[in-house]
Amino acid sequence: MAAATETASFRAPFFIDTHCHLDAAEFDADRDAEYARAIAAGVAIQIVPSVSRESFAAVAATCARYPGCLPAWGLHPMYIGVHRPAHLADLRAQIETQRPVAIGEIGLDRFVDLDYPTQEYFCIAQLKIAREFDLPVLLHCRRANDDLLKHLRRIGVRGGIAHAFNGSPQQADAFIKQGFKLGFGGAFTWPRANNLRRLAADLPLEAIVLETDSPDMPPVWVGRGRNAPGELPRIAQTLAELRGIDLATVAQATTRNARELFGLE
Q1: CB 45 within 8 A of CB 17
Q2: Inter-residue contact 44 to 15 (CB < 8 Å)
Q3: What CA–CA distance (Å, rounded) separates 228 from 212?
């Protein structure tokens, strides 16, 4: 059953989920229903990043089935055990076959014990591919903000998103100066996430985009359950409350930020 509703038919508030793994196996039983729920909630566009060469097909199929889903192609640092240097050529071929809105999900992770030099090898190579194709990047940057900023300054890309940002205000400013937006999702809705909540409240609104990272990074009302793109409006409402502004302002600003970043009309 192909989704029939086109994104152009949506009314405000209009949301863009800038990071959503709707292709993940966790949605196999009810993907149509969760997409429909997101659409009904006004989440008219969902960016679906790949994590490995093996996931290219699932992302492509998801984006073909649902008109509001747009692909990003990349090799995730958490999957370095399956990546091979030849997969970088496959990534180029995938970009040429179906141009994405971004290169991602790529980056670095110092939270888990994975071969860091290998992470850097794939990250640097993909930043160069992003520069070659003049595409923004979706950066996984868990406890690796300074390292990524170093590589960004050296290589230079057309901006992107620091996904699930949880750094310092100084690091936030450094990403912004590199042309990046900062991704905020369910993690800042938890009352004890003090640093994230301060950042969400204080950073310039023109630097913020919204994301769910579905099925991961659930908001507080989901608890330990599966996250889904339909939760984005309530995440946006939490952001509005933290900043003391209305939901429409958050929706308009974050959607505009994402549209400009991805070159969406």
Answers
A1: yes
A2: yes
A3: 7
Q: Is the pTM of this model over 0.70?
A: yes
Distance CA 93, CA 95 (A): 5
Which among 17, 163, 227, 160 has a CA at the least distance from the CA of 7? 17
Sequence-separated (6 or more) residues with CB below 8 Å from residue 154: none
CA 166 to CA 10: how far, in whole Å? 32
Take residue 213 and report the two structure tokens written for it: 């990272």
Give the residue from 197, 227, 205 showing the smallest Cα distance to 214.
Answer: 227
Each residue's pLDDT tens digit in the chain (265 positions)?
333 333 333 345 799 999 999 999 999 999 999 999 999 999 999 999 999 999 999 999 999 999 999 999 999 999 999 999 999 999 999 999 999 999 999 999 999 999 999 999 999 999 999 999 999 999 999 999 999 999 999 999 999 999 999 999 999 999 999 999 999 999 999 999 999 999 999 999 999 999 999 999 999 999 999 999 999 999 999 999 999 999 999 999 999 999 999 999 7
Q: Which residue has the tokens 């014990």?
A: 113
Q: What are the chain's domains?
A: 14-40+50-64+75-217+231-262 (3.20.20.140)
Contacts of residue 233, defined as CB under 8 A and 6 or more positions apart, other chains included, come to 13, 15, 41, 42, 43, 247, 251
DSSP 209: E
